[in-house]
Amino acid sequence: MAKIEPPLSDLPIKTADKGFYNGFSLDVTVTSKLAVGGLVLWAVAFPEQAGGVLGGLNTFILANFASWYIYVMAFFVLVCLALAIWPAAGKLKLGHDDEQPEFDNFSWFSMMFGAGIGVGMLTWAVAEPIYHFRNNPEVIQGLADGESMNNFMNAYKYSYLHWGFSAWSSYAIAGLALGYFTYRRGLPLTIRSSLTPLFGSALSGPLGHLVDIVAVIATILGVAQTLGFGVEQFVAGMSKIGIGDWLVTAEGNASPAGIIVALVVIMGASTLSALSGVGKGIKWLSNLNMGLSIFLLAFLMIFGSTWFGLQALFMGMIDYLIALPKMLFTVYRPDGSETGDALSGWQGAWTVFYWAWWVAFAPFVGLFLARISRGRTIREFVLGAMIVPSIMCFVWFSFAGGTAIDMELSGVAKGAIFASTDGAKIFTMTGIMLGDVLGWCMAVIIVILLMTYLVTSADSAVLIVNTINAAGDEGPKARPHIIFWGVTLGVVVAALLLVGGLTAIQTAMVIGALPFSVVMLLMCLGLFKAIYRDGLRARHGVPSVTVEMPPAE
């Protein structure tokens, strides 16, 4: 039998020791900047060509890799469940075996709550249930009627599919891999460390650089998608509170001037917040958006359609859990028939798009989950990261979307919510509920809340990208690099929005997420191998934890 060796605990990553890039990996940082910068310049200089090529690549991916996205996301869910159930894995800690959690349960769950709501909740908690209430696979197949009560639960089944356990399993995989290898092995807090069981010290070189570059590009495009939706809604909100009709087009979408103004405000504030660091700007903004979020959710629960919301929450969750195994593995393929092509088109526009978005967002959210979960067991982490944020998403969708559906069914809204753009739906709904004066006040609160979410998403993304570029160093980053990524993120969103609207951002993100989905699959295999080998080490008395306990305070 081969000798059982201790795990790899040293993964040197070459960084510059002087000059502009002092402390940064030149290979990762410069290549990432060139790749993202090249995309921006291409989109601005050759908008028609960029739009055509991106659209062609998107069509190719949806035609050839839609099933990959469906199956790989199902695999992530199964991996999380297996790790939670597997006794040898579930009891292992993200840290020293005797280490206690850094945060108590209340604080931990509160931060999970914070991670479970955000820009997506403000846009899609109303817009998505309303959309699926009108059309979904059951309606396409003639099994339910759009805009009728027999389709009410279907609207939530599919909304919960996209925002529930599947989404959070991808975040949990990324967070668990980062936490396991950083806090148990002492490896750098960067994506390449999670693949050391498979590739070992080779990750110090070009292979590791490639992994981190893919993670940086996926993060930028994933956050750009979130900011793109947020900018559209932010502009709709500013128009609603009377800042200017020039902000929107006749169709209700953000005008070019509105996009630029919104991005200057949002990215300017986020860059200043990132420069101030986690302990100041980001912490202050997080506290503000938490308070405003609780206020808005309480308002919807008390003054919205409470009964509809409760039905959507509990009955919708039951339907979702029953249908989840089938929904996870169902791939609709175009077959030349009207129904088959419609089902395939629906899945590409919704489920495949979401799976790509969540994969691209995984380095961002995963790093956050890892940083707040040191000292937790794998079982605690997986169940906490999957269940708590999912339930918070379900609550938001049930009371916000349920109120909107009830208002349309009862005739109170008179089709106004249906007719509004996705970003404007929540403003239309609250305006009908409260009237002109109070509706205006609520719109101001929603705009402020939306801005805080956009700013915290952007500044956190900038800091995380710099952490990856700096070989996992979480310490202070040079101001020019923070400013560069803040400006770049804003320019990416502006360029793609102006070239082809949200469709262009969606297309770029689906393409950028594909290589990182392969990295995430390798993360899963690396975790299983590491946990299995740690079990062997424990039986042979070989230490598997190579980091020291933090000093007592």
Largest sheet: none
**Can you count the beta strands?**
0
Mean pLDDT: 85
Which of globular, elongated, flat, extended, rod-shaped describes the shape? globular
Radius of gyration computed on alpha carbons: 23 Å
Helix content percent band:
over 70%
CATH class: Mainly Alpha
Ends apart, CA distance between termini: 44 Å
Layout of strands and helices, then pairs:
Layout lengths: L25 H20 L1 H39 L1 H4 L14 H11 L3 H16 L2 H4 L11 H12 L1 H19 L12 H4 L6 H35 L15 H21 L1 H26 L2 H24 L8 H34 L6 H32 L6 H4 L5 H45 L9 H61 L14
Helix pairs in contact: 1-2, 1-10, 1-18, 2-8, 2-14, 2-15, 2-18, 4-15, 5-7, 5-15, 5-17, 7-8, 7-13, 7-15, 8-14, 8-15, 8-18, 10-11, 10-14, 10-17, 10-18, 11-12, 11-17, 11-18, 12-17, 13-15, 14-18, 17-18
Mind explaining what this structure looks like?
This protein is mainly α and 553 residues long. The chain has a single domain (26-540), classed as Amino acid/polyamine transporter I, CATH 1.20.1740. It is built from 18 helices and no strands. The chain has helices at 26-45, 47-85, 87-90, 105-115, 119-134, 137-140, 152-163, 165-183, 196-199, 206-240, 256-276, 278-303, 306-329, 338-371, 378-409, 416-419, 425-469, 479-539. The two termini are 44 Å apart. The model is unreliable at 549-553 (pLDDT under 50). Keywords: Cell membrane, Membrane, Transmembrane, Transmembrane helix, Transport. This is Transporter.
